[in-house]
């Protein structure tokens, strides 16, 4: 487990408004609803909605990934257990996450100096006692399954890109330049000139050495191999035995269709290379989406406002409107009121599985600035006929006098 320190203070299930037992599909639906309702494009300038959107995106970044959700659940369960978890194999006790009791207590436990835990000669806890350092110590203790004192994977990397609205809606592939630690080509990431790194004899490859103090056992990074578990006797000259060098590399990133502004796209194993051949970290691409001159979106639906004439609404007509692909023809029924929205199914944002949202077409009357004599005469004739028929556009209007 490599739990970030902020996990101790976050309730990602609450941020998405779901129970901890929610299925992956329920979590996805909850996130999409929050993102749709609170997106900055839908509520520009609303700082509360923007904060809600960002918290939901952060929560989904963890809960939407099966592996990270499992780690998060395990971390939360350990926090809830309080004194029931002991890093030293003892029963939990009140007031301390390892179940310690001070020396001289009636339980008959051996004398114990807490300075051995928080710094000094202790077992790997930082002196500031921060929650992240404490839990790092819990999972790097002696006995049982142990992890290396050195990083077991490379650093995660974040970068940002800006896409046109239609690129984000349809998906695209873009090249990126990433600078950071990459595997050394001379030693193929091993850190050794010969390409092999023998196991450290002092710690037997664990990266830790252990010592006992009375009833308690402690572990610390091995001083011989600096916690790596390997003893490189012939370090590579190009990388100084680390297995990594700093360089710029080019990668191609596929952005899925329907990505929204502020969303993170995770590329596993595309982050910085790990030391001495350990796995690389992940690359997180933060996507920014430009506004479009024609389209707006709500979830998977596209919105467009189309200018029409009074005659097209009154008599009915078929108009041509743009989509993300080729234009489509939309039938406007006779007597359609100004501002009505017509739905064209399947011409919105593409979804997974080959489906797509809908295109919502709102018609808006465009009044001519000037008319020639023939049009003016015809319109006056129509206006008189309209009055003779008894039509009153303000009939039933609350402001009628």
TrEMBL record:
Any one Gene Ontology BP term: protein refolding
Keywords: Chaperone, Cytoplasm, DNA replication, Metal-binding, Repeat, Stress response, Zinc, Zinc-finger
Species this protein is from: Corynebacterium tapiri
Quaternary structure, from the entry: Homodimer.
Keyword Ribonucleoprotein: no
GO MF: ATP binding; heat shock protein binding; unfolded protein binding; zinc ion binding
Highest rank taxon of the organism: Bacteria
InterPro entries recorded: DnaJ, DnaJ_C, DnaJ_domain, DnaJ_domain_CS, HSP40/DnaJ_pept-bd, HSP_DnaJ_Cys-rich_dom, HSP_DnaJ_Cys-rich_dom_sf, J_dom_sf
GO CC, alphabetical: cytoplasm
SMART domains: DnaJ (SM00271)
PROSITE patterns referenced in this protein's UniProt entry, alphabetically: DNAJ_1 (PS00636), DNAJ_2 (PS50076), ZF_CR (PS51188)
Localization per record: Cytoplasm
Repeat positions for CXXCXGXG motif: 184-191, 200-207, 222-229, 236-243
Cofactor: binding comment: Binds 2 Zn(2+) ions per monomer.
Protein name in the entry: Chaperone protein DnaJ
Comment block on domains: The J domain is necessary and sufficient to stimulate DnaK ATPase activity. Zinc center 1 plays an important role in the autonomous, DnaK-independent chaperone activity of DnaJ. Zinc center 2 is essential for interaction with DnaK and for DnaJ activity.
Sequence ranges assigned to domain J in this UniProt record: 11-76
Primary location: cytoplasm
Zinc finger (CR-type): 171-248
Binding-site list for Zn(2+) 2: 200, 203, 222, 225
Entry annotated with the keyword Chloroplast: no
Family the entry assigns: Belongs to the DnaJ family.
């Amino acid at each position: 487990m490599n739990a970030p320190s902020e996990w101790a203070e976050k309730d990602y299930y609450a941020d998405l408004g779901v129970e901890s037992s929610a299925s992956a599909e329920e979590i996805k639906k909850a996130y999409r609803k929050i993102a749709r309702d609170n997106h900055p494009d839908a509520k520009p300038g609303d700082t509360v909605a923007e904060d809600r959107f960002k918290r939901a995106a952060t929560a989904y970044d963890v809960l939407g990934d099966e592996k990270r959700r499992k780690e998060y659940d395990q971390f939360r369960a350990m926090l809830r257990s309080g004194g029931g978890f002991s890093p030293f194999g003892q029963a939990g006790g009140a007031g301390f996450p390892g179940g310690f009791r001070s020396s001289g207590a009636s339980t008959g436990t051996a004398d114990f100096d807490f300075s051995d835990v928080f710094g000094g000669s202790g077992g790997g806890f930082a002196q500031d006692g921060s929650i992240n350092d404490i839990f790092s110590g819990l999972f790097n203790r002696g006995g049982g399954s142990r992890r290396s004192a050195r990083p077991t994977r490379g650093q995660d990397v974040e970068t940002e890109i800006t896409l046109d609205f239609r690129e984000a809606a349809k998906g695209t592939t873009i090249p990126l330049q990433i600078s950071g630690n990459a595997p050394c080509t001379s030693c193929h990431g091993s850190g050794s000139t010969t390409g092999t790194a023998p196991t450290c004899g002092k710690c037997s490859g664990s990266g830790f050495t252990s010592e006992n103090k009375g009833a308690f056992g402690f572990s610390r990074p091995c001083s011989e191999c600096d916690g790596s578990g390997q003893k490189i006797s012939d370090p590579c000259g190009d990388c100084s035995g680390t297995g990594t060098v700093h360089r710029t590399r080019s990668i191609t990133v596929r952005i899925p269709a329907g990505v929204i502004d502020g969303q993170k796209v995770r590329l596993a194993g595309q982050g910085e290379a790990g030391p001495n051949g350990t796995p690389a970290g992940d690359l997180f691409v933060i996507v920014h989406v430009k506004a479009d001159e024609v389209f707006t979106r709500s979830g998977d639906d596209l919105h467009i406002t189309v200018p029409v004439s009074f005659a097209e609404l009154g008599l009915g007509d078929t108009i041509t409107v743009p989509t993300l692909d080729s234009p489509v023809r939309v039938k406007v029924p006779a007597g359609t009121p100004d501002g009505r929205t017509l739905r064209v199914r399947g011409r919105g944002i593409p979804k997974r599985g080959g489906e797509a949202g809908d295109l919502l077409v709102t018609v808006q009357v465009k009044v001519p600035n000037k008319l020639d004599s023939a049009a003016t005469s015809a319109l006056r004739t129509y206006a008189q006929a309209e009055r003779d028929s008894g039509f009153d556009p303000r009939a039933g209007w609350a402001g009628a006098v």
